[in-house]
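Reopening this one. Same input as before:
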Amino acid sequence: MTPAPDEAELRARLDDGLARLVLNPDHAERERLLALVALLARWNRAYNLTAVRDPIEMVARHLLDSLSVSAYLQGDSVLDVGTGAGLPGLPLAITQPGRAFALLDSSGKKTRFVRQAALELALTNVEVVQARFESYRPGRKFATILSRAVAPLAVLAAAAEPLLEPSGRLLVMKGRRPSEELAALAPVLGRVLVHRLAVPFVEGERHLIEIRPE
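Same output, byte for byte:
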């Protein structure tokens, strides 16, 4: 069995990754990011929240992957659709305290973890919602709607339309460039941009699909 990494190793991996992403969270935010990894690792042993078991891998595949889209957020309100174990919403909320984040998932097991994590990490800018995206009607709209590839682009775009501010944007995180899904998008959805992401210590392609209503 591979020995668990010590705190110094995790901290070094996080600091290296943040530098490569040209991000500079303050000390308290870095401590919260590391505390989130510890919470994920502890809860994962009992509740199977994520397939990633190694905390070192969690730093790359959960924290750094989530934070790789930081520059693409806009406005003061963000909806994270299908947040699962709070990804990418929790890492982004930790490093962007000036924005309000709603973290949405239909799984009670996962939303219980996200609520507990937000409480333990003292994240006052996080609201956790257990609901299905297509039936979620909060009575307000969001400047950014973000999803880590929980559904095809066309499905996400259609469900996001009534919840997105007129000048807002839908951001969908994908692995390989989803050419077939892009081709299936209706032209009336707006302007579609594809950004290639470079996530430190993560092999394989990563893309961000940005849809701006017009």
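So the earlier flakiness isn't reproducible anymore. For the record, Helices lie at 7-20, 27-47, 55-67, 89-95, 108-120, 153-160, 179-184.
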